[in-house]
Amino acid sequence: DELFESLTLMQTHKIYPIPLILFGSEFWQGLLDWMKTTLIQYETISVKDLDLIKVTDDPQEVLNIMIQHREWKKQQRL
């Protein structure tokens, strides 16, 4: 639920883009396949929206994504 709520808020520019991290690629693959076909087909999301979703099996990559986002956010405040 939070995944789609966050995507909607970013699509409607209610919040700044944030990384949406899905940990466990095997677990999330069915949902991602559905999003890539059905949601794009019905134009409820774009391919660009899917770029906001990061899928990983590596805890260090999760940390790196969060650090990169924090640095980006700092730059936006300047």
Note the main attributes of this structure:
78 residues; mainly alpha; two-stranded parallel sheet; 4 helices; 2 strands; flat
Topology:
Elements: H1 2-11, E1 20-23, H2 25-41, H3 47-50, E2 53-56, H4 59-77
Parallel strand pairs: 1-2
Question: Please, could you describe this protein's structure?
Answer:
The chain has 78 residues and is mainly alpha-helical. The chain has a single domain (2-77), classed as Rossmann fold, CATH 3.40.50.450. It has helices spanning 2-11, 25-41, 47-50, 59-77, and strands spanning 20-23, 53-56. The chain has a two-stranded parallel sheet. The longest helix has 19 residues, at 59-77. The chain is flat, with a radius of gyration of 13 Å. The termini are far apart.
Strand-residue proportion: 5-15%
Which residues form runs of ≥5 with pLDDT under 50? none
The overall average pLDDT, rounded, is: 93
Biggest sheet: strand arrangement:
1-2
- The CATH top-level class label: Alpha Beta
Summed up, the helix count is 4
Tell me what the CATH architecture is: 3-Layer(aba) Sandwich
Order of helices and strands: HEHHEH
Task: State the CATH topology.
Answer: Rossmann fold
How would you sum up the major sheet? 2 strands, parallel
**Judging from the principal axes of the Cα atoms, what is the shape?**
flat
Rg over CA atoms: 13 Å
How many distinct beta strands? 2
Q: How many domain modules?
A: 1
Which structural class best describes the helix and strand composition? mainly alpha
**Termini separation (Å)?**
33 Å
The percent of residues in helical segments reads: 55-70%
